[in-house]
Design goal:
The chain is mostly helical and 81 residues long. The protein contains four helices and no strands. It comes from Lentzea roselyniae.
C-alpha cells in the first residue's frame, strides 16, 4: 500500500512520462492485444471440439486445459510484485 505522498509522486512521474514519451507510456499501459486472446480461444477451443469428435480424448483434454487457463488468466491476471 502506497502512502498519499508516494501516490502523488507516482502520478506525477506517470504524467511526465506520458508528456515526454507518449508511445512508451501507451506501450506500458497496453495489455495483451484482445485479438490475440480471441485467436487463442478459437484455435484451442476448435482443437478441443475436433479432437473430441475424432476420439483423441487425451489431446482434447490438454487443449481444453489451455482454453480454460486462458479464460481464468484473463479474469485473474498474474501480477508480479
Amino acid at each position: 500500500m502506497l502512502s498519499e505522498a508516494e501516490r502523488r509522486s507516482l502520478q506525477e512521474i506517470e504524467q511526465r512520462l506520458s508528456a515526454e514519451e507518449p508511445r512508451l507510456a501507451r506501450t506500458l499501459n497496453h495489455q495483451v492485444r484482445p485479438w490475440l486472446f480471441y485467436l487463442l480461444l478459437l484455435v484451442f477451443g476448435g482443437l478441443t471440439v475436433l479432437l473430441t469428435v475424432i476420439g483423441a480424448l487425451g489431446p482434447a483434454f490438454q487443449c481444453m486445459l489451455v482454453t480454460a487457463a486462458a479464460l481464468v488468466l484473463r479474469r485473474y491476471p498474474i501480477r508480479l510484485r
